[in-house]
Design goal:
The chain starts with a helix and ends in a 6-residue tail after the last helix. With about 100 residues, the protein is mainly alpha-helical.
């Protein structure tokens, strides 16, 4: 009888220690889960911001690409006009 009680008491102590150990592990896992959820939320906000920045950047680039030829021809006309003005100021005669 005494042996059975000693075995049972030993078993109860071991199980209580296991309960304490598992409770600590559960609390640590819960803390890690909360931290991971917080990190995930922060990361999602950052990704949303980057997606918006990417969309804005694409919009700007599309505008520049769309108007590139117009701007290029305008610049070419400006260069030609400046060259003619330079020639006029140099004393060039344009068929007068």
């Amino acid at each position: 009888y005494e042996q059975t009680i000693a075995d049972t008491n030993g078993s109860v102590e071991a199980l209580q220690k296991e309960i304490v150990s598992k409770t600590k592990a559960k609390a640590e896992a819960h803390k890690d889960k909360l931290q991971a959820e917080s990190d995930h939320g922060d990361t999602m906000k950052e990704l949303e911001g980057l997606a918006k920045y990417n969309a804005d950047l694409h919009e700007e680039c599309d505008y520049v690409m769309k108007n590139f030829e117009v701007r290029q021809s305008g610049r070419q006309a400006e260069i030609e006009a400046l060259q003619q003005a330079k020639q006029i100021l140099s004393g060039a005669d344009f068929g007068k």
